[in-house]
Design a protein that fits this description.
The protein is mostly beta strands and about 90 residues long. It has one helix and four strands. It has a four-stranded antiparallel sheet with strand order 1-4-3-2, with no helix packed on it.
C-alpha cells in the first residue's frame, strides 16, 4: 500500500506508531531563523488519523524519490485535515 505522501505523519525506522483510528494529530512547521538556529515549532493544523497499519510503509520507489523516507518509513495518514487559516506568526507555538 505504501504512504500517500500527501498528508501523512511519518515515523523513524524501528519505531512503529501507536496511533488509533480517529485519534487527533497536530501538524507543526519546524523552521530556523536566518542564522540557522531552530525556532519553536508552530502548529498549523490538525486532523484525525486513519490509524496505523503495517501496510503503511514507504515503498522502494518512494524512497528512491525521497531519500529521507529511508529514515522515516512508517506512515500514518490523516483522514480528515484542517489547516489554520492564518499567517505563520499567528499560529500556535
Amino acid at each position: 500500500m505504501g504512504c500517500s505522501t500527501l498528508v501523512d505523519i511519518v515515523y523513524p525506522a524501528g519505531k512503529k506508531p501507536s496511533v488509533a483510528h480517529d485519534d487527533y494529530m497536530y501538524m507543526a512547521v519546524i523552521c530556523a531563523d536566518e542564522k540557522g538556529n531552530p525556532v519553536l515549532p508552530y502548529i498549523v493544523g490538525r486532523g484525525r488519523s486513519a490509524g496505523y497499519s503495517d501496510d503503511y510503509i514507504a515503498t522502494q520507489e518512494m524512497i528512491a524519490e525521497r531519500e529521507w523516507m529511508a529514515r522515516f518509513p512508517h506512515c500514518c495518514p490523516f483522514e480528515k485535515f484542517e489547516y489554520l487559516d492564518i499567517t505563520i506568526d499567528k499560529c500556535i507555538p
